Amino acid sequence: MSEYGTLQDRVQCKSLLDKVKTPEQCIDFFKDGMNLGWSGFTPAGYPKVVPIALAEHVEKNNLQGKLKFNLFIGASVGAETENRWAINDMIDRRWPYQTGKDIAAGINAGRIRMGDKHLSLFAQDLGYGFYTKDSPTGKLDLAIIEVSEILEDGSLVPTSSCGVIPEILMICDKVIIEVNTGQPSFKGIHDLLTPLTPPNRQVFNITRADSRIGSISIPCDPSKVIAVVESKLRDQGRAFAEQDDTSEAIANHIIDFFTHEVKAGRLPKNLLPIQSGVGSIANAVIGGLAKGPFQNLTVFTEVLQDTMLDLFDSGKLDCASSCSLSLSADPGFPKFFANMDKYFDKITLRPLSISNAPEPIRRLGCIAMNTPVEIDIFAHANSTLVGGTRMINGLGGSGDFLRNGYLKMMHTPSSRPSKTDPTGISCVVPHCSHIDHTEHDLDCVITEQGLADLRGMAPKDRARRIIEKCAHPDYKAQLTEYLNIAEADCLKRKVGHEPQLWDRAFKMHLNLEKNGTMKLKNWDVKVDLCE
């Protein structure tokens, strides 16, 4: 028995107690090539004991590469499941986002076929059956869902995230349910709705960050359930990145900008609902808000990290809406569970199809803040592919918010170290090596050097503003020289709206690959690319 009750307590649909199995008893349900749907969104709310048991089965029986699956999950999940599956060559296809060294290595080595997608569109298209259209049944073969409780009618109460559970249940007729008794129940924290398909898709009538439009559980036909498995394993959430001088400088620029916008009347005194990504910069921004002058803040985002609890503790955050409660294993979740009476009623967890839907993001006027790999002088941004080819994690939900928010902001260090040069990688480049967010999406670019407000600016003006405000001093002159050369050449040919020279635009990237730094000797080109 867990200190938080028994499996019998949590399974109120008593007919399902006849389907209780051990994780090992579920192994026979899995066949090579299956399309699997998992709950989870970031390392929160994902199934644990069944995926771990299946990995152990593969390891014990030398089945690496012989038992492979296609995974459709809301976002990344815990490394003890997904990363372990990648090590054992158990993943053929993976949609739409992942984290972990081993799964990324598998993707970049060509062993794992990954599809990168805006998260709101992934949830929607999964429910439409687009990802399973070529399977014999047109559906997912099997789902594994972690829940806190199963209610009397068979409906499911998720745990720390909602992910794409509604869409999975729409297109899957066989479901394994992991009931997690190793933590308190999350019953009451969720706002759950299964979006229908057009032309019957519902209005998401969210008018405040804490609006509720659904119910506390997701319908599930008990006849679909083939196994109920008890789990006592908690989410292995990543510890949040520590703040440093660079991230704090970026946060200060953003807080100053918000203060200016309030004075100008373009933001209310309590700002507008905040969407913040993950990482040290996001943590620093939230930390800055906790110390800043703004009261009665609200959050409408996709991931709540440890620093959001600190913002609640400051008394300045009234409520937060998210797809997942992605706290660290320590101290995040222990702190949350010890103070559930303080946080629980102020947090709303929603399915991905709603947390990232364009409709409420635009209606609420969210302030979107995310971190890219690089931005270019015209304000295109690369969030996914280092050097244009090496996948890191995926696009995530940044585009959902950057295309629909009230203020669309991206923050990054102005430079990063290479192996041989402490400022060898400029995060401001002539042209991004891969573009996830176009110049049309961004309002502001921020580095520790400064904030470039690009609203209402034409391309060449944006370029000079970004170089002036955001580029590292080691690269300002180099980038300005490139822009001057490109502008003179393109205007001479009367093609100068957004000047680029394609024989030089990626020279900084090529120099990094060859010489270990983006610092160039000159912008000369010695090779005729059309030879």
Number of helices: 17
Instruction: Give the number of domains.
Output: 2
CATH architecture of the largest domain: 3-Layer(aba) Sandwich
CATH topology annotation of the largest domain: Glutaconate Coenzyme A-transferase
Number of strands: 25
Query: End-to-end span in angstroms?
Result: 74 Å
What is the radius of gyration?
Answer: 24 Å
Spans of at least 5 consecutive residues whose pLDDT stays below 50 are none
Q: What is the highest CATH level, the class of the largest domain?
A: Alpha Beta
Helicity range: 25-40%
User: Biggest β-sheet: count, sense, barrel?
Assistant: 8 strands, mixed
Strand content: 15-25%
Q: On the 0-100 scale, what is the average pLDDT? A: 95
Content-based structural category: alpha/beta
Q: CATH H level of the largest domain: which superfamily? A: Glutaconate Coenzyme A-transferase
Apparent shape:
globular
Subcellular location: Cytoplasm
Enzyme class: hydrolase
Family: Belongs to the acetyl-CoA hydrolase/transferase family.
Domain Acetyl-CoA hydrolase/transferase N-terminal: 16-230
